[in-house]
Amino acid sequence: MEMIKQEIIHLIEKMSDESIEETKQQVDQLFEFIKLSHSIWGTVPDIVKPSETVETETSSETMTTLQDSSQKIIATAVTNESNAELGVPLDRKLKGGILKGKNGDVFIPEKLIRTHGFVHGDYIEAIGDDPHNLYFIKRRESTTAHECNRVELSYCLLSTTSDGYLVANQRIMDGKIQTIKLDGETPYQFLIKDNEIQSYQLQQGSVVAIAYFRNNPSSYRVVWQYPDYTDELATQTPKPSSYYKESSNHKENKWNIAEEQLLKDKNIVIVGADFRSSDFIALADEADFTIHTLSGDENRSRFEAAVRNVDLIISASAHSSHRSSKIAKDYAKKYNIPFRAAPTSQSSIKKAIVHGIKESYIPFHSFF
Fold this sequence. Notes:
By secondary structure, this protein is of the alpha+beta class. The protein has helices at residues 2-13, 20-41, 110-116, 194-200, 241-246, 257-263, 277-287, 300-307, 322-334, 346-358; strands spanning 54-55, 62-63, 72-74, 77-78, 88-92, 97-99, 106-108, 123-128, 135-140, 150-160, 166-173, 176-179, 190-191, 207-213, 216-225, 267-271, 290-294, 312-315, 339-341, 364-366.
């Protein structure tokens, strides 16, 4: 901590009218480093001052070196003492990135690049006494991000072909599934490699980021898996309710006659699945009952007003907060309303609806 205090003082002392904004950014980054260190390790590692660098004989660049006995700033290239805090420009790779230094390159894992929001060309300093356990601080914003040869396709939805191969040919964009088209016109499909399937434990419905070199899509790699996304979040573009009402040729009946009679005129609330309201309302239209969806963020009075007279409350637990799920349970108990917990897939919600109405004497049941 003491070393960082001294560095902050050093930055402020050398600040000029022209460097106020740059100094503020550098000081802010140090404070972010302090907060991050406290949150993860409960302490702040010391770093050396920029003046404690070693000048090489073969280059005008000054590189800080890694010592066995104390922590050093490493992979930091500078040309003079006045800009010693500028770090090294990040060379973004398909997965992760490299800080190129005279004393050896430093690799930044993909997870850290995403955590810190680093982009190609950002000036980064690596801090630590172990090449496999470093801390990274951005010293200056990139001016060359546009020169990066890397293209990333985010939120790619994986599916299985008829012959069993796992592929990505669709993306989730603006909450909708869209076909991947690299040139804006021609559909494109990525075959997921076996080693990537094993490494990320991928399956149908997984959502990943795929990166490749510009003008060479065959260089693609899966570089990230989104842990909070599943195929349940990737829904086809919702159709208006009239689509389901007006043409029986467009649909197969989702309810049998007994279920239609069971659900007729019922009033059901689903908590935590408002992003799929169009799908669920279409279900209700087919059997002549009513579904209301709540986000779970409503205040208690509005929540109570919405559920007090319904026939069933369903919590889409995978997407509802602990708070909203608890409130839903509390009001279900208060007003003697059956309560069901289920995933947000249409088939799971349908199962919860039938069970909740048919077995309404059971106060609580989970389909997880």
